[in-house]
Amino acid sequence: MCSVSDKAMTMILDLLRDAFEQAKLPKTVYEAKKTIRKLGIEYAKIDARPNDCMLYRGDDANLTRCKKCGCSRWKQKTKKGSILRLNVPVKRNGKLIAAKTLRYFPLIPRMQRLFMCSKTSSDMLWHKQASNNDGFLRHPRDAEAWKKFDAKYTNFSADPRNVRLALASDGFNPFGNMSTKYSIWPVILIPYNLPPWICMKQTSFILSTLIPGPKIPGNNIDVYLQPLIDELKQLWDGVETYDAKEGNTFKMYAALMWTISDFPGLGNLFGWNTHSGSNVEIRQRLSETDVLRQQSNVHFSFGKSSSVTSKKRRNGQDTDEDDSHWKKKSVFFDLLYWKDQMLRHNLDVMHIEKNVCDNVVFTILNDSSKSMDNLKARRDLQCMGIRPELWPEEGDSYSSNVACCVDLRQRKLYGLKSHDCHILMEQLLPILVTFSLPSPVSNVIANLSSFFRELCGKAINLMQLAELQNHVVQILCQMEIIFPPSFFTIMVHLTMHLVDEVTLGGLVHYRWMYPIERYLDNIETRINRPGRVDDGPVDVPHNSGESIFPAIGKALGAVSHFELTPMEKHQAHRHVLVNCDAVVPFLE
Asked: Please, which residues bridge with residue 259 across strands?
C-alpha cells in the first residue's frame, strides 16, 4: 500500500529486532516472504492479454505473443526520435513488464486452513449438526437445491466436512473517484458450511481472483476464471487435509453451489442472454438436457473481437430458436456436477428491489427524467389502442395523474443508494403513500412493500411460500391495471421469480450482493487510503478538566487573537447550551 522498497522493509525489520529482542523476526524481506509462503496465503501473478484472449499459464506460460491475436505479451511504448513509429517493450529493473496481470489467490490452501483451527473446524460442521425441525428456512442447507445435491451425490454429503461454496463477483473503482473510468473485478467465494452468524461476515469471505481493469471483462470473464475452475475440479476429486479438531487427516471435497451477481452478471457468468424478458422465462423451465443440447450449438471465441455462432449460422440449417438465447457455454459447465445444480445463478434481490423502488418512487413523484409514466408512455398506449383513460389530452403536456398528490418543491430525489431503497421500499413507502395517493394505488404499493419485507426475512416458513408466490402474482396484476406498460421493466418482472429461488436456494441474505458490495467498499488501497494527518474530532472526557469542545486537527502557522462581538458571544453561548452534552445535567 505504501510502495515500501525491499531495502526499506529490511531496515524496518532491523529496527523491530532491536526494539523487541525476544521476538523471532525475519532478518530480510526474503525470509519474511518465505514465512508467509508457509502460511499458504501467497498469491500468483499470471500474465494476460489486454484484449482478454488468453492467460499465459500452463503450456502457454513461456509464450511471448498471444496465440490468438499475435499481439505482444509485454507493455509497449513508442520509441522517441525515430522516423519510423517503433514500439519497444517497457522494462523495469531490467525486466519486461506484462501488458496485463491477473492476481490469483490459490483456493486449496485457504480451504485447508479452515480446518487448521479446532474452533473453525467445529464451525464447518454446523450445517449438519445443528437441528432445524420447525419447518422454517434459516440457512441454505434447509432449501431444496442443497437437499437434492445431497441426495444425488451421497459420497459427497456423507462427510459434513466437505465444503459448499458460492461465488460472487462485482466491479469496483479502486481510485474512489467515479469520474475515473477504471474497474477491478474481484471474485469472492463464500463457504456455506458455517453457521448463520458467521457465514456472511466479511472475515469468512475468501478472495479468489483480482481481474484487472480498466474495462470490465464481460463475457471474457471465463478466461480469468480458468485457474479457479481447475482448482474446483481438483477439489471435486478430493485433497488431503489436516483436521485440528479430530487430530487426523481426511480427504476434503468442495462443490460450487451457485453464483451471485447483479443482473448483467447473469449474462457474463452464466452465459445467458439477458436482453429480453422472454429469455428469463425460458431459463426458468430449461431442463439439464435442454441446456446441454442448446449449448452444443453455441461457439464463442474469447477476446474483445469475440462472437457467437450457432449451428444455424454455420451451415444455414434451421435449429431450435431457443439456441439464440445463449451467448456462450459458461466455464462453470466444465465442473462435472454443474449441470445438476437446480439454482446455478441467483437473481439479486438487492438490485431488483432498488430498481422496483426507483420505478415506484419516481413515477408517483413525476420526476421528469426518471418517471415511467410520461407523455411518451401515454402516447404509446394510444397507439396500441388500450387504456383510453390514460391517453394524453391534446394541448396538455402534463401526463401524470398523481401530480396533485405531490409537493412539486420536494418531488425530486437524488442519489438513492441500494440500502436507502431497501429501507424506503420495506418500511417508509407504505406510510408515505397512505394519505397522499388514491386507495387503489396506495394499497398495491403497501402490498408490494409487504412482499419484499416477507421475502427478506431472517426466517421463512416453507408452508407459506406458495401463498407468498400467489401474493406477488396478484400484486403485479393489480399494478398492471394502475401503471402504464413502460413501468414494467425487466427488473419489475423478475420479482415474480424471487419466491421460487427462495425455495431452491434458501434465505435471500445468503444470496444477495449487500455483503459483497460492502466488502468492496471497505477495501483500502494505496490510492484511496486516508491522509497522514487525521483531522477528525478527538473525544475528550468531560470530567478531565479540559475544554468541552473537541480538538480537531492541529494548529498551523502563527497564532492570532480577536474579540467576539456581543452578538457573537450570545450565539456561542446558545450553541453551547443546545449542543454540548456536558451542559445537559445542569438543564434538567
From this structure: 167, 345
Give this prediction's pTM: 0.73
What one-character DSSP code corresponds to residue 28? S
Half-sphere exposure at residue 41, Cβ-oriented, CA atoms within 13 angstroms: 9
- How do residues 6-22 score in pLDDT, each as one tens digit? 899 999 999 999 999 88
pLDDT bracket for residue 125 (50, 70, 90): very high
Rounded distance, CA 98 to CA 346, Å? 35
Helices (H) and strands (E) in the chain, counts: 24, 19
Angle at 125 between CA 120 and CA 131, to 5 degrees: 130
Of residues 567, 456, 461, the one with CA closest to residue 509: 456
Q: Where are the alpha helices (DSSP H) in 170-319?
A: 196-199, 221-237, 263-270, 277-284, 288-295, 311-315
Burial of 252 (0-12, 13-18, 19+ CB in 10 A): buried
Q: Give dist(CA 281, CA 494) in Å, integer.
A: 9
Q: Is 134 helix (H, G, I), strand (E, B) or coil?
A: coil
Span 320-348, pLDDT tens digits:
444 457 778 888 989 999 988 888 888 88
Whether 162 has a pLDDT exceeding 90, the answer reads yes
- Rounded Cα distance between 227 and 364, Å, is 49
Name the DSSP class of 61. T
DSSP structure class, residue 213 = -
Which amino acid does the sequence have at 49?
A: R
- If 0-12 CB within 10 Å is exposed, 13-18 middle and 19+ buried, where does residue 564 land? exposed
What is the per-residue burial (b if ≥16 Cβ within 10 Å, else e) of 90-125?
Answer: eeeeeeebbbbebbbbbbbbbbbebbbeeebbebbb
What is the full DSSP assignment across 503-557? HHH--GGGSSSHHHHHHHHT---TTTPPPSS--SEE---GGGSS-SSPEES---S
Judged against a pLDDT cut of 50, whether residue 250 lies above it is answered with yes
Asked if 369 and 437 count as a contact pair (C-beta separation under 8 A), the reply is: no
Hey, which residues does 243 pair with through a beta bridge? 248
Grid cell listed for 384: 396500441
Average pLDDT over every residue of 533-548: 48
pLDDT > 90: percent of the chain: 26
Q: Is the peptide bond before 160 cis (omega within 30 degrees of 0)?
A: no
Contacts of residue 75, defined as CB under 8 A and 6 or more positions apart, other chains included, come to 89, 90, 96, 97, 98, 99
Q: The C-alpha cell of 215 is what?
A: 474495462
- Is 252 within 8 Å of 116 (Cβ atoms)? no
List the Cα angle 51/182/268 in 5-degree steps: 55
Q: Answer yes or no: is pLDDT of 317 > 60.
A: no
Choice between 393 and 214, residue whose per-residue pLDDT is larger: 214
Instruction: Please give the grid coordinates belonging to residue 422.
Output: 431497501
Quick one: which H or E segment has residue 209? Answer: strand 206-211
Cell 462581538, residue? 565
Residue 387 confidence class, pLDDT cut points 50, 70, 90:
confident
User: Among 28-32, 79-83, 467-471, which is the least confidently predicted range?
Assistant: 79-83
d(CA 166, CA 257): 6
Residues 55-70 have pLDDT tens digits of 888 888 888 888 888 8
